[in-house]
Write a structure and sequence with these properties.
Rossmann fold; 5-stranded parallel β-sheet; 4-stranded parallel β-sheet; 10 helices; about 40% helix; binds pyridoxal-5'-phosphate
Length: about 280
Amino acid sequence: MGNVSLLRLDQSGGLAPGNKAFKLREYLAQARHSGAERLVSFGGAWSNHLHALAALGQQNGIETVGIVRGEAAEDETAMLADAVSWGMKLQRVSRTEYRRRNDVDYQRELRERFAPCLLIPEGGASPAGVRGCAAIGELIGDVAPQVGRVVVSVGTGTTLAGLVSSLDTDCEIVGISALKGATDLEQRVLDLLAASDAGRQAGWSIRHDFHCGGFARVSSALREFILAFEAVQEVPLDPVYTGKMLFAIHQLIKTGEWNAGTPILAIHTGGLQGRRGYPWMT
Ligand SMILES: *Cc1c(COP(=O)(O)O)cnc(C)c1O
């Protein structure tokens, strides 16, 4: 398919592979400097973010607490079992309470309850996360300095913002949204960039037409694509993020919207641990 290279971030980062170790590195440094004894953050039962936070907490000798959305039995997942085995304390909350995760009063309550702690927004979406992800752009500058188009999956947009702030300004960055109808994503990326004092910025855009049914949903076309891609390329994909990102590239080249000759660097942001949520992948 076209002239596509893959940056395999899934192969580095140990137990916190992909983009998450980049996104969390500055929070770990902040916690060390501020004397926080634990890192507290939010996520669903299949959260790659909480999974990585638990792994990094254990590696760095700092406690972790996961505020988990949902109290039902189906929320006992292999991901949370890993997190607990790495020492994360789970605080399961109702979906109603989880909705308060960005509310200032709720955050103050949590800070007091888990003091001394550092509270990390869901998905690590803050300037600290953006600065951590800027290291991915620097890596690309080293391994593929001439690349014209970089494609990355988008959840919160933090990784995208990190790339925008660190890649060469004539590079074009295309984010593929893993969410359906997240029309505020562009604004969230702009806000993250503004709050991070990102100076020079590469051009960027987000495609909203490759969610394949919604967040963590899989269409039959996506499933067929992933199985065929894995068989031919021998590269495992996750269906939530990287599968949709590569499916988008495949479609955009196939329909001629993108020129097949343009060199593309696609970023494999990891997430393979989440395959355990999809029986057809295991
Ligand atoms: C979290 C995640 C993303 C999305 O990253 P954001 O910075 O939230 O946009 C992409 N791919 C994988 C595999 C992830 O786990």
